[in-house]
Amino acid sequence: MVAEFRTKAAGAVSTSWRATYASILAFSDFLVLSVVVLSVQMIWFGFELGNPKFQVHEVERAASYTVLSVVIIGAWMLILSVYGTRGYRVIGTGSTEYRLIADGAIRLFGVVAIFAFLFSVDLAKGYILVAFPFGIFFLLLSRWAWRKWLGGKRESGDYSSTVLLVGSEASATHLAIELRRRTAAGYRVVGACLPSGRVGDYLPGTDVPVFGGVDDLASALAESGADTVVITSSDLPPQQIRELSWSLEPGRQHLVVAPALTDIGGPRIHTRPVAGLPLIHVETPRYEGFKWFAKRMFDVVASAVLIVLISPVLLIAAVAVALGSAGPILFKQERMGLGGKKFFMLKFRSMVVDAESLLPNLQVEERGEGNSVLFKMKNDPRITPVGRVMRRFSIDELPQLFNVLGGSMSLVGPRPPLDREVVFYEKHVHRRFLVKPGITGLWQVSGRSNLSWEDSVRLDLYYVENWSITGDLVILWRTARAVLAREGAY
User: Fold this and answer.
1) Alpha-carbon distance values, 481 to 22, 182, 334, 361, 478 (Å)
2) What is the mean pLDDT of residues 114-127?
3) What is this structure's pTM?
4) pLDDT-derived band at 58, boundaries 50, 70, 90
5) Residues sharing a CB contact under 8 Å with residue 49, sequence separation 6 or more, in sequence order
6) For the domain with range 161-260, which CATH number is right: 1.10.3720.10, 3.30.1360.120, 3.90.1150.180, 3.40.50.720?
């Protein structure tokens, strides 16, 4: 009886946070749309509103733009609901939420335009053309703010689905660690059921308790209060998985099947039901064609514009390096680029001239600072005073814009490695050479020098497998924020 009450209470909490957050978003959306649409109306027409006539079935009736604005707000709110922009499956992580908001708004704009054309409705085009872009922008801005708030709540374990993992020990442990790493995804692991059926133990390296075997699922759900069951491996028989799904309470308990694929971006994944089988199609990443051409054009234009805009900074940095210590202004270092071809990467010199010869004398225990392949030291004695300032703000990296303009590098990509680092690469790490190295990349905006080697490789390979122009723009934006915050730079 106690277990049953606990299960119902947990289910009520699980359901309540979803409903609460959806209500918060609905109120926020309504407030944003009301302010934007009515403000645009008043600015465009002034406070004395005209009364254009609508023609519907040859019956003329007057309607003010205030009525039109109210109709647009109501229709927009309806579109946001129909497109599922407040569904718990899309909020919190990924770009799906933002894409649905934009898609819904564009389609609503199209409906309004078609309606006005077909029924010869006299609408002020400027009012419509201004209201929709501003509405989309402020909707996305408010959702971004709420997403930040939600992320903070999920860091403390609130506003999250409580998860019970079912599968092999290895797969359950891997998923538990990954979900713990990504709390913003909203899945808080509270237990596991393993084929071995052992009880009173924990998944290796975690504090996730094991509640027994797959047959103990019902009691495990009751004891843990979980509202979501995640199948972590494919070694369970199809009939057992089907029966497991039948045992869950509809609407309150949910079933998720996690494939063995990891670090695959959403746009590459397509689900297609065939003969009752939910087949997952994974597109092979392509490094050619229009996307590749567009990336190169973006690199050329952006690097050229940036070189012109920051030319005063480049000049000041060059003078500071020349006056700060003896030696050349630029430091050229041979790195490995696209296809493993070598090139000379440019940087402002931030170390003493004989820095490379001093490298073997540095104490072994200080090498790497937690990174077994890359050499990084927080207090490297070879760095000059001017170089230390430049490194804190990544100014020493700016000459690499000329590498980008010349074609040996890209604005965004994996870190260009040294020869001595490539020697330690495992076979799969060589996939980094499928794309051009970048001035910045996913690993730089995810911790920079504070990351372990394994995390650096994982993030670089994720970029290689899932790169896109949109993703590059996001990384560039995050780079600017990371540089200003000076996170992990030394």
Assistant:
1) 29, 20, 29, 35, 5
2) 67
3) 0.64
4) very low
5) 41, 64, 65, 66
6) 3.40.50.720
